[in-house]
Amino acid sequence: MRRLKSDADIGRIRESAALVKESLGLLRRSVRPGITTADLNEIASRFLASRGAQPAFLGYMDYPAAICVSINDEVIHGIPGKRRLQDGDIVGVDLGVEIDGYFADAALTVPVGEIPDEVRRLLEVTEECLRLGIGQAVAGNRIRDISNAIFEHAREAGYGVVRQYCGHGVGFAVHEDPQVPNYPGGGENPRLKPGMVLAIEPMLNLGTSETSVLDDGWTVVTGDGRASAHFEHTIAILKDRTEVLTA
Ligand code: MF3
Ligand code: CO
To answer: How far from 83 is each of 35, 38, 55, 69, 86, CA to CA, in Å?
Structure first.
């Protein structure tokens, strides 16, 4: 595991997180039927350039865009392109920002116009899972306390919890140790300490938890074609509290 973040480090990560938050607000307000996913990418790219910040995903493992845009049955890592959003879609928007080697990462899923009640409920429960997971992300707890809180709430609601992709440490890079699974598993289960910065990101499916990757090598889709939702925040564990840096 990398070194813990100092208060000064967290201050720098907070600046990146502020731009993640602003970008996501801008993207959320831009979502409407007819806009292309490439348009959303352009909006985020221009905004970050205007603030002198880097889109952290661009070029990461050769990822070709500033943001990930994942529609309906796309879980995560959708590549922006010519596709136009339609009334009734849900669109996941995921964005990382780097300023001078300090990184933050967040995502949300936005309805496009009117969506079916069962999909609206999926979005609500996924966001609740994120909130419950964050509630367990306090010094003295362990990673698995976060995982359990997310998984239990999702399971009670009857959703598939994606297992192939996890939350993660963040701050000095896009992805750091430790992994933050959305399900209770075996393996390492580190204790949470002041100075840890984590991206917590439940991914819930209406149907099966199984996923596959499209031929573009990136886009993760559900195994049954049913909808998927994703919400993510970057949080910092401090001595006496936990701060949601991207909220
Ligand atoms: N947003 C993803 C995450 O939260 C990372 C995207 S990886 C990229 O972990 F390659 F697409 F940038
Ligand atoms: Co992330």
So the answer is: 8, 8, 21, 10, 9
Helix (H) or strand (E) holding 68: strand 67-71
| 134-161 tens-digit pLDDT | 999 999 999 999 999 999 999 999 999 9
Give the pTM. 0.98
Cα 105 to ligand 2 centre (Å): 6
Q: How many residues does the chain have?
A: 247
231 ligand 1 Cβ < 6 A: no
User: Ligand 2 is a single-atom ion; what residues have CB below 5 A from it?
Assistant: 105, 199
Decide whether any atom of ligand 1 lies within 6 Å of the 94 Cβ: yes
Report helix, strand or coil for 169: strand
Q: What is the pLDDT of residues 48-98, one digit of tens each?
A: 999 999 999 999 999 999 999 999 999 999 999 999 999 999 999 999 999
H-type helices in 51-142, by residue range? 117-136
Q: What is the C-alpha separation between 100 and 77, in angstroms, rounded?
A: 24
Assign 81 to helix, strand or coil. Answer: coil
Any alpha helices (H) in the chain, and if so which ranges? Answer: 7-30, 37-50, 117-136, 143-157
Using CA positions, which residue lies closest to atom 7 of ligand 1?
Answer: 57
